[in-house]
Amino acid sequence: MSQAMSEAKSTLGVMGWIFIVLGALLMLGPFYFMFVFATQSRADIFSVPPPLFFGDHFFDNMKILMAKIPFWKNLGWSLYVGLMGTALTLLFCSMAGFAFAVYEFRYKKMLFALVMGTMLVPSFLGMIPTFLIMDALNWIDQPRALYLPGAAPAMGIFLMRQYITSAIPKELIEAARMDNCGEFRIYWSVVVPLLGPAFGTLGLIAFIASWNNFIGPLVVMRSPEMYTFPLALRSVQSPVDTEWGALMAGSAIAVIPLLIIFIFSSRRLIEGLTSGAVRG
User: How far is the C-alpha of 116 from the C-alpha of 240, rounded, in Å?
Assistant: First the structure.
């Protein structure tokens, strides 16, 4: 009986691994073909059957792409907006999360519920108000119009508040106060050094959201030289004459920074998502 049960468990384990591998191949397939098509000409991409291996047209595709858009400016603006947005998100969300986790003040629960309630509002409802505000501030066609309005998202405040509550002992903060540390000094010197996993998680999420942002630049950016990379790639598409090889080459380059950041922050991401999971 026990042998039959062990064989059944072994079979289920093998089937589970097969399911995981098939799922991984299904998810990685589009990325693989994107990189393959980035090295193929437009005629090869639409051949039957389509190419399954890498070609030798990558640099030709890059020349076409650079002729159609100010490639380096667009890539540079995307990096700048992504890094600035991520840095401000980490700063403001950690400060707000610290306040909600540590302090007791009037209407605290109501204010926190109001912050969480903003997550229920669809983002596209803010397009027109955002444009009107940016226009009133003369921020149209300025990068700060992309990273300042969304610098303190509710999800980031919630993540920081939960992490500080579960992972940082209140006794540590009280000990710092007994040593005559000011409140900002406690935040900066005691709390911030312990927020590594939460910073890794939120930083990765914030950078990906900023890097992939398409609607924001579409609303407030006017000059092709000021486009972020996703919007610039969209401008390459045409109803009648799209250079798909060049578009795939640009898409492949757009994915590389995300892969690099994920590789270096994946450990922090897992720690941040699982912190406090085994606490009572």
Answer: 45
